[in-house]
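Input sequence (89 aa), recorded before submission:
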Amino acid sequence: MAHMVKCIKLGREAEGLDEPPFDGELGQKIYNNVSKLAWEQWQEHMKMLLNEYRLQPWKKDHQEFIAQQMEAYFFGEGSERPKEYVPPQ
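Predicted structure, token format:
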């Protein structure tokens, strides 16, 4: 049986992730509150952040920035797009 959650992002019950996306408190919080669909949406948003800010995920300060944006995206006011971002046509 699928792991079901009351998705914090979608505002409804939906299928959750198969396992926490990473170790730690935030990973467990995401597992308990975020659906697969919302996680896929975050991954697309994260790709945009990585590209627009030219982040290098192996750098500690860049990892911290992504974690802050992830926390805001799911549990805060939301993660904003960079001011210079132009969506693809």
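Checked by second reader. The mean pLDDT is 90.
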